[in-house]
């Protein structure tokens, strides 16, 4: 059994790759730049780009199963890539999308590029006539690696989202569910929505990182206007800023999101253990913040 991992240099694809290799599976890893990806030597590393199907010649040869990510790379090529894979003999596909995908929704906001791509990929895989599983992940705990530089240099994390709790999920749990779906039977047709085992706010996340690295840290609440100015100065895309904060003339209010987050038990149902808490993630990544 040869398993193809696309997006192998990404946060989740890389973890799927590591877990598959640790379990002794034969893995082919797709990345756009093998020389810079630094992937494990035990993997068969292949260069290619999902957004450019002409670069994928021979990629699916002798591949039985495939982990398909990231969705945004397949925004316009999903049907072509999936057709090529199934024609070559791929019989099981596990996709990575997000908990934002809702079944049978009347339409997809094309302005939300990632969401539209996720729906496109899921539908292409479902129509392919193969075994499939969708892994719909919630907010990644790994997103808080964005704080690493501020923590290392100032010990202060600033955010406008201090009161908003999230059911963040460890990348190791997302990957473990994907690996189970790739290598075990009984997951065909499943649409797993993955969260952590607890709701945590940014101040609680900062406290967990402080405990993990043995250093005092501080969370600083800032206004949406301050956050907008900071992100504009850092060169972030205005569309991204509006998506995160709402339009400048009508910014979000934290009270709008109070109690909105929900937890699922899909990680535990698949893996037979609870999802890792944020404190475990902080301990696993302590060196990133030192």
What is the topology?
Blueprint: E1 2-5, H1 11-22, E2 26-31, H2 34-37, E3 44-47, E4 65-68, H3 78-88, E5 92-98, H4 113-126, E6 131-137, H5 148-153, E7 156-159, H6 171-183, E8 191-194, H7 202-213, E9 218-221, H8 224-233, H9 238-245, H10 266-271, H11 278-284, H12 286-289
Parallel strand pairs: 1-2, 1-4, 2-3, 4-5, 5-6, 6-8, 7-9
Which features characterize this protein?
37% helix; globular; 290 residues; two-stranded parallel sheet; alpha/beta; 12 helices
Rg over CA atoms = 20 Å
Report the β-strand fraction as a percent range. 15-25%
Number of strands: 9
The secondary-structure class comes to alpha/beta
Which parts are unreliable, with pLDDT below 50 for 5 consecutive residues or more? none
How many helical elements? 12
Oligomer: single chain
Instruction: State the helical fraction.
Output: 25-40%
What's the average pLDDT? 91
Q: What distance separates the N and C termini?
A: 40 Å
- Profile the largest sheet: 7 strands, parallel
As laid out across the biggest beta sheet, the strand order is 3-2-1-4-5-6-8
Q: How would you spell out the order of helices and strands? A: EHEHEEHEHEHEHEHEHHHHH
Shape: globular
